[in-house]
Amino acid sequence: MTDFFYSLPIWQSTILVLGAALAIGLGSSLGLRALFRIRPTNEEKEIAFNLMQVAAAYVGIMIAFAGVQAWQDFADAQGAVSLEAATAAELYQDLSIYGPETRAARSALRAYVGSITQEEWPLLSQGKGSAATETALLNVFNEVGQLDPDDNRTGAIYTEALSRLNDLINLRRERIIQSQAGLPLILWSIGLVGSLLTLAYASTFSPTRSNILMISGFSMTLGLVFLFILTVDYPFKGEFSVSNRELVKLTSEFDTLDRMGVRDSG
Fold this sequence. Notes:
By secondary structure, this protein is mainly α.
């Protein structure tokens, strides 16, 4: 079900969610009124309205919490990818400064970044990593490990490069973990059931034009909130997802560093 939703363009998913919210909202209010032949007194209407306000407040707090959590997870995922790209660029710069003997390590780093964007990135929508990308990262580690600093300068650069390489490993692991993010089922259950119960109180309202418009507006508002949460709930799924643009740009940054020819005379 989720794969179907995230395969849709934003405009189609918007129509789907808002249409479902409107249908459920009107159905749970007008439908209940017709099904149970509810004919409340004015006092009962007032009680129902007050209860609806209380239920809406509690459900609203829960939905707001879910929305904040989903957006925080999305922002964290985007930040992690940006940090991963920055760390890879710094590592390549360290290797360039080290000397021409790091050509193999730099080539391995290029291959690793390319494997992320071409092989691993599509798998993140399924919460998985790529075995080929894992191998490419190990190859970077092996090439850097073969370097043999021969003075204090290269020793300091080598230590820094190893530190950044370790950071790169941790950042990849964090990216894969974040690709598996998603709100717990209990939060979705509370939000959906609570919204339905809140709308059910509207069954006591007379089916006048103004009341129908009010129920429709409330349903659409809930639909918009759920649309937002659904859109950002899985950071690497759907049209609105974490971008790999900064990782893709690394190739041109690597080329720039190579053209500078820092300590690489041939």
